[in-house]
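ARCHIVE CARD
CATEGORY: sequence design from structure
SOURCE FIELD: tokenized fold
FIELD CONTENT:
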């Protein structure tokens, strides 16, 4: 499973001009399920993400997690994170999970996040979304959990 975390002061996602998810301070999570990913991998990704110390404490050091700062999560599915650009100029996406598996894993991740964290917003799986954010820092962290 691949995720790109962006520490934000605000972020939102629109579909057909309608805001369907938005947060203030927190993490914009771009999430991609890969072939072979499981619920256990999704759970491990979420646990790590919630504890990752990338928010500044009173001294400005990155010592606090999204949970410590009571920040939100905006979780957006993005299969293009599995892009293979090793040959040619058109990305290949054969490493991405099949749509039905990806939806199942995305839904699982979101459900577990909602159980573990008080503020969870989402995009819409497989929709054409417009995502806006104010990256704080900027802090952008790529994550990959494989087992």
């Amino acid at each position: 499973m691949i995720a790109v975390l962006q520490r934000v002061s605000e972020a939102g996602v629109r579909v057909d001009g309608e805001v369907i998810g938005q947060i203030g301070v927190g993490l914009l999570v771009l999430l991609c399920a890969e072939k072979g990913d499981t619920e256990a991998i999704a759970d491990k990704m979420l646990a790590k993400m919630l504890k990752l110390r990338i928010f500044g404490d009173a001294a400005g050091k990155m010592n606090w997690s999204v949970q410590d700062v009571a920040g939100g999560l905006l979780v957006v599915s993005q299969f293009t994170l599995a892009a293979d650009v090793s040959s040619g100029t058109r990305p290949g996406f054969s490493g991405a999970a099949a749509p039905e598996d990806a939806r199942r894993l995305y839904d699982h991740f979101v459900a577990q996040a909602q159980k573990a964290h008080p503020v969870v917003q989402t995009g819409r799986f497989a929709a054409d979304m417009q995502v806006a954010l104010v990256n704080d820092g900027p802090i952008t962290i790529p994550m990959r959990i494989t087992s």
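CARD ANNOTATION: The mean pLDDT is 97. Strands lie at 2-15, 18-23, 26-32, 55-56, 62-64, 72-77, 120-122, 130-144.
SHELF: design records, drawer C
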